[in-house]
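Quick one, tokens below. Sequence please?
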């Protein structure tokens, strides 16, 4: 089969959702497309939410590849334990930054710490969670939107000076396939109407993708590429806790955290001249940003989203 036909077959696989998002997806694609891992030794990568799930799997793979790691999380004990583990796995170095993603002041401090690094080659926005009940942060922002949308905006803003000095630098945001089920709702960004945890999560992931394009436009002149990806359906503690029925139903078909993390790690090292900027990825291939009618965001709405998130980030 020619490369063109293989890509078309993969597009069909992706549109079918279930075989694409489960562990069948990477099992097939790894063989068909002959995946080769990029060189990561010596690259400096910062990652939020590295102490469990996809974030931990990402950090472990980066450590085995001899990367320098900047770990951003709120629990100092977990960070210390993780740093020791990653050093044993082969990390060139580790550095920890304490940050609660629901706290704007903490995010600003963490962003400043990132910006003060001598250089930064990749920033991975992975931290977050799905919450069953609506909660509001101390800054007055709905928790899901605060941690998934506003916090990455603040951290990115602070990290730009170090990224600008990085080697082929990029930003990678971990979105979710659940994003395909939701459109941006500017009239209810903070989920005040009929809160449902899974829907709030999906809308936040859609907003992440929309902002990816805006960051790509603004940072391209500085040589910084910006991407989003989704990991498929992976078996993580967050999924088990937040979606127990989903976890039980799909069980054996769920990807391992390592399989879910593969494209995150790949995006941290693959040369930008191969992938460009402003991509949405699954299993090392660009994917459509919308499948369902009415879920694609207009350029005017993206511009308004940027302004509103920027205002929230400024406090």
């Amino acid at each position: 089969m020619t490369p063109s036909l293989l890509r078309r077959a993969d597009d069909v696989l992706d549109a079918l959702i279930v075989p694409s998002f489960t562990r069948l997806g990477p099992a097939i694609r790894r063989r068909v497309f002959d995946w080769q891992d990029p060189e990561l030794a010596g690259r400096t990568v910062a990652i939020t939410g590295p102490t469990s799930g996809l974030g931990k799997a990402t950090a472990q793979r980066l450590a085995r590849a001899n990367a320098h790691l900047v770990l951003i999380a709120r629990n100092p004990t977990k960070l210390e334990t993780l740093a020791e583990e990653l050093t044993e796995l082969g990390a060139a170095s580790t550095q920890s930054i304490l940050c609660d993603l629901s706290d704007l002041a903490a995010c600003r401090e963490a962003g400043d710490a990132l910006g003060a690094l001598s250089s930064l080659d990749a920033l991975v926005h992975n931290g977050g969670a799905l919450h069953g009940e609506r909660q509001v942060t101390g800054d007055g922002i709905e928790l899901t939107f605060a941690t998934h949308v506003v916090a990455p905006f603040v951290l990115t803003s602070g990290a730009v000076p170090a990224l600008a000095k990085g080697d082929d630098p990029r930003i990678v945001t971990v979105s979710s396939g659940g994003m395909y089920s939701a459109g941006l709702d500017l009239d209810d960004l903070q989920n005040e109407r009929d809160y449902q945890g899974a829907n709030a999560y999906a809308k936040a992931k859609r907003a992440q993708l929309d902002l990816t394009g805006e960051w790509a436009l603004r940072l391209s002149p500085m040589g910084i590429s910006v991407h989003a990806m989704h990991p498929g359906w992976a078996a993580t503690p967050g999924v088990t806790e937040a979606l127990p029925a989903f976890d039980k139903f799909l069980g054996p078909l769920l990807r391992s955290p390592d399989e879910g993390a593969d494209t995150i790690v790949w995006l941290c090292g693959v040369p930008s001249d191969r992938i460009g900027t402003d991509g949405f990825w699954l299993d090392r291939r660009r994917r459509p940003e919308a499948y369902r009618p009415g879920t694609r965001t207009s350029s005017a709405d993206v511009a308004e989203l940027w302004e509103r998130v920027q205002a929230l980030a400024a406090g």
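The chain has a mean pLDDT of 94. The longest helix spans residues 197-219.
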